[in-house]
Design goal:
By secondary structure, the protein is α/β, with parallel strands linked by helices. It folds into four domains: 172 residues, Serine Threonine Protein Phosphatase 5, Tetratricopeptide repeat (Alpha Horseshoe), CATH 1.25.40.10; 107 residues, Serine Threonine Protein Phosphatase 5, Tetratricopeptide repeat; 80 residues; 169 residues, Rossmann fold (3-Layer(aba) Sandwich), CATH 3.40.50.2000. The chain has 27 helices and ten strands. Strand 8, helix 26 and strand 9 form a beta-alpha-beta unit. Helix 6 packs antiparallel against helix 7. The longest helix has 15 residues.
Length: 562
Amino acid sequence: MDPRNTLSGQNTELQNAIALHQNGRLAEAATQYKKLLNLFPKNPYLLSEIGIIALKMGDSEEGVRLLEKSLEVEPNQPVTCVNLGIAFSQRKQLVKALANYDRAIALKPDYLLVHFKRGELLEKLNRPEEALASYGHVLAVEPGNFSAHFKRGELFEKLNRLDEVLASFPRVLAIKQDDFLVHFKRGVLLEKFKRYEEALASFSRAVAIKPDDALAQVNYGVLLQNSKRLDEALASYNRAITVKPDYAEAYWFKSLVKLLVGDYEEGWQLHEWRWRSEGYKNLCRNFNRPLWLGEQSIEGQTLLVHAEVGLGDSIQFCRYLPMVEAVGAKIILEMPAPLVSLISTLKGNYMVVEKGSPLPYFDLHCPAMSLPLAFKTSLESIPATVPYLFADPDKQRIWRKRLGNKEKPRVGLVWSGLIRGNIDLNPAKKRSVPLQLLEPLLRLPIEFHALQKDIRPDDADALAKFRHVYTHQDKIFDFSDTAALIKEMDLVISIDTSIAHLAGALGMPIWILLPFVTDYRWTLDGTATPWYPSATLFRQSEIGEWPNVISGIIQKLEAMFL
């Protein structure tokens, strides 16, 4: 029986309270309900409604008390069980919330709202299979329930059951063909599956549905950039900036395209937006000293130049220090510990300080990657005289003795790097080469030396099969050790890592294996880079296509040494 029917003779007052409640006039509705409760102190409907209002007005404790009292009076109230479950969920009392959802389902098995909320709660409790079952129950009764389809898809993605996620999209889109979020998520997933044209179509549809979503425009731009559709990528970044004029990521990604195509004037300016991006915010240094970007004279002043993220970036941009010295500044150079000994070989009068150590007094500061902006670098004015870094002669002699007499050509090799940020997670930018693909190269009658400090366990097992591949990770302590080893090589072959920068800075012959989408320093195409005159570039012709790159390396090695 409806508990409202027990409020005999009070129909007008009750309807007035309900109307106030429905119109959001909560305090007035509560007052009216309480007047009725004085007349009917054990009415479960009144207790429940006052409890719901208490929850809405932020009095969680009172709301739970009243709902529980309502259920004591009348246990068979599925709606009240649900409201109590929601209250406990808001209070982070998830087990109690789940118990009340289960109680509601026991009273009303086809209560789809509760099955859905139960699924959400089970996700929070890290019980994903049960959550999937709850969403599945909703869909069994109501196959067109968009929210249940969507939640299942999100859960499949969290469980890395990507095939099932992808299979769910047609069903979801059949219900809502123009749902922005579905097209957006489908694009992200299709990119993971390396189905780039379909991913682009999904992103294109997403931004057509919601052109004022700046995040979607940036994501679409990144995919276009990774497909080398650079003009379209720039247009997408510009649309994001129009929507959100302070969107740092859009400016930063735009800067990378500008630098890649050689527009250094705008590219370096836009690159300063990196400091406002989410990826860089926590890296921004608060020195309480002015930032120098080349606008004013620094003659006679002390400038702190400090490293940013990548070790390779520090190796690349320390070349600017002689230019800073030439304009009359004293220089303090802050570098991470693995680089201190190496960078100290740079010609000039600098104080090199290990990052984390106390800093001497300085007047201004400049991040290392802002030096090209400070000196208005263009493609034609890149300071590219090599070598500008040098190996320690004593360490080089130690390596020469350790390696022994050379009977075959010696080639330094780097095939993998640390998984950092999106470099090895983004298929278009994936720089590491699976070791098994290098097998034809490693069978050549050449003495290969692994230059990388970090060798993954699976790679170490695979390397044991090749007699002419030597590893030295237990003898490499910092980059000065690596530099001395490199100088004992006839050639270095490397993916895009700090070792490639090091070999280039030493003026050593370096062959660099590049993914389909490269950083600006390697330029858009061609076999040369203006940053490292001794480098030769070998590029993928399509995303993920390493075999042809390795084949080209083998042919050139055979022509050079065999």
